[in-house]
Design brief:
248 residues; alpha/beta; Rossmann fold; globular; single chain
Length: 248
């Protein structure tokens, strides 16, 4: 599906990002793995290479625009061009009611989960215009509905959906497709703490009519498809991967 394509995945040291990077490589793409977690990112790149793929790791903090610029520059320097980007990096942040939400936590969550996606796209799009490539932004079910005590995360993910639609309108006629994916609760390190308490885990499972939490590979398969030419007439869309969460 991505034979001879050059791809970039942020937040690829574990969880959904790692699954996406592995899926891209499995389908023939060269992969630039990026994260603030150097050890995990290097491990993902090594996994790809051990399976016969081509991958490098580039450390970057996407809340810093200069890091996003240098990241794209490294892609071009190493592989020559960019065909596909998945802006997956994100953090969960604090849990607190809006009036009690810490200011520094708000700034950090918005900085990574929303501004980081904007910064990445700002530097990716000029390169993708050359290759008529594709972007997939990682939103969330909380890009569509509210969630008490998570005002920053909810606001950021709503913003990602809106940003995706705006950019799609701007660049789709020039050959760049831009879509968003919205996972529900997925088995990843991000929710490991919540799953450690059986009662909390059961309450999370109960939110999903399918009767379980999702797996990273299930998100990666949709991202892979949206990144490929098989989704050639799809842009500006938001696709949930949610076990029925939003159908309630």
């Amino acid at each position: 599906m991505l034979k001879d394509k050059n791809s970039l995945v942020t937040g690829a040291s574990s969880g959904i990002g790692r699954a996406i990077a592995l899926a891209y490589a499995r389908e023939g793409a060269n992969v630039v793995v990026s994260d603030v977690n150097r050890d995990g990112g290097e491990e993902t790149a090594a996994m790809i290479r051990s399976q016969g793929g081509d991958a490098i790791f580039v450390a970057a903090d996407i809340s810093r625009p200069e890091d996003c610029n240098k990241l794209v520059e490294r892609v071009i320097a190493h592989y020559g061009h960019l065909d596909v980007a998945c802006n997956n990096a994100g953090i969960s942040g604090d849990m607190a009611p809006t009036a009690d939400y810490p200011l520094d936590a708000w700034e950090r969550v918005i900085g990574v989960n929303l501004s980081g996606v904007f910064y990445c796209m700002k530097y990716q799009i000029p390169q993708l215009l050359k290759t008529r490539g594709a972007i997939v932004n990682m939103a969330s079910i909380l890009g569509q509905v509210g969630f008490a005590n998570a005002p920053a995360y909810t606001a950021a993910k709503h913003g990602v959906v809106g940003l995706t639609k705006a950019a799609a309108l701007e660049y789709s006629a020039q050959g760049v497709r831009i879509n968003a994916v919205g996972p529900a609760f997925i088995h990843t390190p991000m929710i490991a703490g919540m799953e450690s308490d059986p009662a909390t885990r059961d309450s999370l499972v109960a939110l999903h009519p399918i009767g379980r939490l999702g797996e990273p590979d299930e998100v990666a398969e949709l991202v892979l498809w949206l990144s490929s030419k098989r989704a050639s007439f799809i842009t500006g869309a938001y696709y949930p991967v949610d076990g029925g969460f939003l159908a309630r």
